[in-house]
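Dear U.,

Please find below the material for section 3 of the report. The protein was modelled together with pyridoxal-5'-phosphate; I have listed the sequence and SMILES used, followed by the predicted complex structure.
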Amino acid sequence: MELAIADSFAHLQKTDIANAIRFPRFTGTEKDRRAGAAWLSRRLGQEPEADRIVLANGSQAILTMLMARYVKPGGILLTEALTYPAIKPLSAMFDIRLHGVAIDDEGIVPDSLDEECRRLHGKASALYCMPTLHNPTSATMSDGRRRDIAKIARRHDLAIFEDDIYGVLPTDAPPPLATYAPERSWYFVGLSKSLASQLRVAYVLAPSRALGEGAFWPGVRTTNWMVAPLVAEIASHWVLTGLANDILQSVRVETEERKRLAVSRLPTASIHPENLNYHLWLDLPEHASLTDFVMSARQAGVIVGAGDSFAVNNDGGDRKFRIGLGVPADQHSLVDGLDAIASLFSVKG
Ligand SMILES: Cc1ncc(COP(=O)(O)O)c(C=O)c1O
């Protein structure tokens, strides 16, 4: 990372910074979008048309724009029964109602999605989902599951907001859902989990250039969703010079090592291998209540995600908690945190 930063400053010195920061970069420059196409091609299998790509100030900014345009106040957004917690305050901002759809170890259950759409008589206009390394369970949809979900989305005319922020971490994940239903998919990949958490760049691939421009243009009248020019310059430089690839490789190695540390420090009974990835989705100790456990962890200096914060109107997270392995600054702090959690398992309530 230090090398990449030194290299970025050297690159910026050769760039016309005054010009770069004078004008907004709505949707990114042509070079930014080419870099986006190159980055997304790792998952899509080929480079998408660069003019379908928009750069934004992170995945949350993309979601804000998509919710406002495709769901609207009073509308319904479908999500996995357990979902990325930020969806809740974001949807509340727009007075959008969330309906959770049942999940299993491959993510969304097709029959449940179909049933929920029928029950809602066309009132649900979009589905937000994480088909690869779902947050928090790490579930990944198989090829067959993606095909089924795409078919149902088409049957009920759902727009798909596919969040693939973790999808570049594994080397063998199936292609995005967007490749099964490109005509209705808004496929987005933030760089915060694979390159740098606060670089604040995400790429969204729109179903078509016209739809992309319609949803994200002109940015100045809405929220500050646009990518910051200097930051875009760095991200494009990283992707186009291969630095991004080097950083991703080191994140993969570090993630594997952190998983190994987690397995060696936590009580084995609490770990289900399928829920072990960038996140750990763990059962609470039998004797603990969720609130007490989260508070005790905090008192021991560790912030864990309370399972119920992921749940959309159901009790699927009531006996669960989540650890983010990527959060501690180094392995030493990770081990301290894991040991603190492990010691909470041996305390009887
Ligand atoms: C599933 C998911 N999507 C998006 C984000 C945040 O993305 P960004 O930093 O690009 O706004 C997170 C962060 O935890 C996440 O878990």
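For the text of the report, you could mention the following: The chain has a mean pLDDT of 91.

Regards,
Y.
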